[in-house]
# Entry
Amino acid sequence: MSAGSPAVLGLDIGGSSSRARLSAGGRILAEAEGPGANVAALPPAVAERRLTELIAALGQIHPVACCAGAAGAEVPEARARLEQLLIHLLPGSRVSVVHDTRLVLAAAGRESGIVLIAGTGSVAYGRDRRGREARVGGWGWLLGDDGSAAWLAREAAREVMRRVESGGAGGALGDALLGATRVRGAGELTGRLHSYREPGRWAALAYVVFDTAGQDPGAAALIERGADGLADLVERVRKVLSIKGPVVLAGGLILNHKPLESAVRRRLGRSTVRLEEPPVAGAVRLAGASLSNR
# Structure
């Protein structure tokens, strides 16, 4: 590797999955994927083990800079833990930690605009031409994350439980949810769901809403409600920063489920675009940019 092409490491640390990319001079040297390692939602030992294994999967690496975009980085204590862990794992590397929303604008090659992420969780982030930033949502699956995969699963369960308590049947949505959780009835459903301690496990159930939307009006209504919640995040960022867009859509839920993407686009207008590069590419770009800021 030439002196003019130092290796930089980008990390995209999400709630359901994490990704690492080592690059030099625009060339990808190594990549690795692993489970989610949200530093604010998981026990510190679990997050540390997962990130250690993720970086180890790249082999013997010595990047001069590392940028980690992390879910949960808005929590100061969690961000500090992540910074210290990466400094330990990557001695001699220039380490920076940003919220994972920042990666999306960088991956899209934009200095300003609005990001809407709907994956395990949901959040909107904006940056105007003067560098002012605003983040709305991203409260976590216990408090908010409206329109996210974890939210959809929770709201689907609530819908099914209401139906059963009213003396009715669970419908197509209920049957799908019982099958996905491998329980025999609504009485077992709450116990099974309460045993899911990680948001990723809830998020993994969101597919039942899309699979049954054509047969179950309640499931279809959940998608529309989710779109309302996601569009509201964007509108709140627009109000804070007084910018319209463009709005970059990102996250596995919205990019992989057309009904939700279409519903969100109807609400946000024509300035909406899909993220074409993975967010980890944005982490690599920010890691490289950090070298010129020394």
Notes: The beta strands are 7-13, 17-24, 27-35, 65-70, 94-99, 113-118, 122-127, 133-137, 247-250, 272-274. The mean pLDDT is 92.
